[in-house]
């Protein structure tokens, strides 16, 4: 009886990754990552925000202290309107929004002012972030006040530089950016006569 011959099929091995294929795969992954990053950069690009000073005025308050004397305190007030000019990105603002009012013939003196938000405008557990997202094309108004001690006979603040700084977030769909710091300079703000409003601010 002749011996039985058993044929064992050859197992085909997968071709090894050559250096050329490895480099090609790495380049492909890199291109995909660049495309994804570029897409997110376009989607989450900061919205274009424009800012104007809508109005400004001087307000005088009187109150009595413990000696029954009437004390006068004067505030410089102004209203800022921020417009979200983006066509698709929402924006929200940090709290408080700060401003400096530079006054005097050489602008060597300044006051700090803040715009405060109502307590129901905050995120739960946060006193510094507004929970309100402002849609594209919308306006947001902020009312500032600074204690000045203005004397009606001297140093009338009729030509001032107002510098505003704010922290903002942008959102498109479910994606939200990290906070951005934006700064605007508003020139020739007149608190005395209330003229030339609105005043456009430069970024």
Question: What are the defining features of this structure?
Answer:
single chain; 203 residues; mainly beta; 1 helix
Descriptive notes:
- It is a single chain.
- The protein has one domain (47-200).
- 12% of the residues lie in helices and 42% in strands.
- The protein contains 1 helix and 10 strands.
- The protein has one helix spanning 19-43; strands at 49-64, 70-84, 90-93, 97-103, 109-115, 139-147, 160-172, 175-176, 180-189, 199-200.
- Strands 1, 2, 3, 4, 5, 6, 7, 8, 9 and 10 form a 10-stranded antiparallel β-sheet that branches.
- The N and C termini lie far apart (100 Å).
- The model has no long low-confidence stretch (mean pLDDT 75).
């Amino acid at each position: 009886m002749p011996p039985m011959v058993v044929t064992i099929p050859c197992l085909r091995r997968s071709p090894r990754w050559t250096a050329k294929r490895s480099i090609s795969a790495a380049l492909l992954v890199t291109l995909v990552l660049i495309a994804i990053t570029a897409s997110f950069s376009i989607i989450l690009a900061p919205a274009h925000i424009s800012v104007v000073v809508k109005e400004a005025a001087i307000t005088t308050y009187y109150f009595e202290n413990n000696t029954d004397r009437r004390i006068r305190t004067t505030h410089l007030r102004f209203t800022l309107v921020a417009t979200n000019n983006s066509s698709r990105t929402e924006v929200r603002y940090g709290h408080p929004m700060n401003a400096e009012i530079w006054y005097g013939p050489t602008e060597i003196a300044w006051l700090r002012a803040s715009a405060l938000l109502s307590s129901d405008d905050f995120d739960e557990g946060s006193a510094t972030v507004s929970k309100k997202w402002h849609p594209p094309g919308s306006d947001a108004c902020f009312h500032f006040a600074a204690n000045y001690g203005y004397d009606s006979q001297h140093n009338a603040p009729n030509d001032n530089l107002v510098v505003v700084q704010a922290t903002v977030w942008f959102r498109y769909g479910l994606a939200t950016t990290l906070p951005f710091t934006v700064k605007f300079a508003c020139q020739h703000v007149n608190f005395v006569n209330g003229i030339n409003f609105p005043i456009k601010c430069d970024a």
